[in-house]
């Protein structure tokens, strides 16, 4: 059947599906079927109780979603577009699932794969890829989020090893991680370290009272005279450029993931508008409601076109960090607009956990902040456009 003869898909007004390869479509369908069975029916309860579904971690590994871009050590070797589509489907269920996969693969595993020793890779990457082990990425600190160059965590040489002191904050997966990739200031600049959970002096504290990303494990990492062997250092990581390169990988996943949350909100509002009657007819028949739905559909499809274009650039090795900033800034902004507009269509029902809309809107507030705030990405683009830095 040609695209012109099949029914119009409101979530794919531009027929972008036709621009995907058979393999890319298969990845998306496989992840979507898995989540329809294992996540969508239960995620509202996970959010309500503040619980991450750890029982799904091995299944995520079986599907090849952990370290999906890596070509060895158990990675699936998927292209950037396939990874993006997986992120979209994961976040269509809940941002917590995409965040877990993103931190595990694009941050912890990516850092070990790029900058770790052969021994570190051999020991950790296959276990992280299968879901046997969980990783986290310790960069952000309580007083230094947008400016990691001012970090206070230190690593001092002590005999044949290191002593790590400091605190990391807002660390996804921290409380369930078997290994943390931690960045610290040394006499020779910023370095990365591989810190197993059972290292003396390393403890975690989960953050409570969150109104966003409630189904995600968010933790504080505490290092108090934490003694590490000399080979805990990531030997190929030099300076802040190393962790920032990993953040760029995670930001790419957000470009797609945010649209998954947006799609769920749009489709929920569309179904509701067709079924909910006021003044003797479905509210979707009113001009004001149609304007909202069209506005959401345009934003969603424009975001998908941007994500696909950036994914193709990434697969060609041509994607620039500034372009990732543009994608993250634009698509998260669009996703939040869609979620908030969807809530207005649902009226009072929009605040109920019976519907996923406000849950996604709350989650997207965190997505908007982590991996670079709107302000930071604006200044990155501002410097790219003017050639003038506003940071220093």
UniProtKB/TrEMBL annotation:
Signal peptide as annotated in the record: none
GO-annotated biological processes: fatty acid beta-oxidation using acyl-CoA dehydrogenase; fatty-acyl-CoA biosynthetic process
Protein name (database record): Glutaryl-CoA dehydrogenase
Gene3D superfamilies recorded: Acyl-CoA dehydrogenase/oxidase, N-terminal domain, Butyryl-CoA Dehydrogenase, subunit A, domain 2, Butyryl-CoA Dehydrogenase, subunit A, domain 3
Keyword annotations from UniProtKB, A to Z: FAD, Flavoprotein, Oxidoreductase, Transit peptide
Cofactor field: FAD
Domain of life of the native organism: Bacteria
Gene Ontology MF terms: fatty-acyl-CoA binding; flavin adenine dinucleotide binding; glutaryl-CoA dehydrogenase activity
Domain Acyl-CoA dehydrogenase/oxidase N-terminal: 21-132
Family label: Belongs to the acyl-CoA dehydrogenase family.
Organism of derivation: Thermasporomyces composti
UniProt keyword Flavoprotein present: yes
Record domain Acyl-CoA oxidase/dehydrogenase middle: where: 136-226
């Amino acid at each position: 059947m040609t695209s012109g003869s099949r029914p119009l898909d409101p979530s794919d007004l531009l027929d972008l599906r036709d621009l995907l390869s058979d393999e890319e479509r298969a990845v998306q369908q496989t992840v979507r079927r898995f989540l329809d069975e294992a996540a969508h029916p239960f995620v509202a309860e996970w959010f309500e109780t503040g619980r991450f579904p750890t029982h799904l971690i091995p299944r995520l590994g079986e599907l090849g979603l952990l370290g999906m871009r890596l070509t060895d050590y158990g990675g699936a070797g998927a292209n950037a577009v396939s990874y993006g589509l997986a992120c979209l489907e994961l976040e269509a269920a809940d941002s917590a699932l995409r965040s877990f996969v993103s931190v595990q693969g694009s941050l912890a595993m990516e850092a070990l794969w790029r900058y770790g020793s052969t021994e570190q890779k051999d020991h950790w990457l296959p276990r992280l890829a299968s879901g046997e082990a969980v990783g986290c990425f310790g960069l952000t600190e309580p007083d230094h989020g947008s400016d990691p160059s001012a970090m206070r965590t230190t690593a001092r040489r002590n005999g044949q090893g290191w002593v790590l002191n400091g605190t990391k904050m807002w660390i996804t997966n921290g409380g369930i991680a078997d290994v943390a990739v931690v960045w610290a200031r040394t006499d020779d600049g910023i370095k990365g370290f591989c810190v197993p959970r059972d290292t003396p002096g390393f403890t975690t504290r989960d953050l409570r009272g969150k109104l966003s990303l409630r189904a995600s494990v968010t933790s504080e990492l505490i290092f108090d005279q934490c003694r590490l062997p000399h080979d805990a250092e990531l030997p190929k990581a030099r300076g802040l450029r190393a962790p920032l390169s990993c953040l760029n990988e995670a930001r790419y996943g957000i470009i797609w993931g945010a649209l998954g949350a947006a799609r769920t909100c749009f489709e929920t509002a569309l179904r509701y508008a067709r079924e909910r009657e006021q003044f003797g007819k479905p509210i979707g028949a009113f001009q004001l409601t149609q304007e909202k739905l069209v506005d959401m559909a345009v934003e969603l499809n424009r975001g998908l076109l941007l994500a696909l274009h950036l994914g193709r650039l990434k697969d060609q090795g041509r994607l620039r960090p500034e372009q990732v900033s543009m994608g993250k800034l634009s698509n998260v902004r669009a996703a939040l607009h869609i979620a908030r507009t969807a809530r207005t269509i649902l009226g009072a029902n929009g605040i109920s956990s019976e519907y996923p809309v406000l849950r996604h809107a709350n989650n997207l507030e965190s997505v908007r902040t982590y991996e670079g705030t709107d302000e930071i990405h604006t200044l990155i683009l501002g410097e790219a456009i003017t050639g003038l830095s506003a940071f220093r």
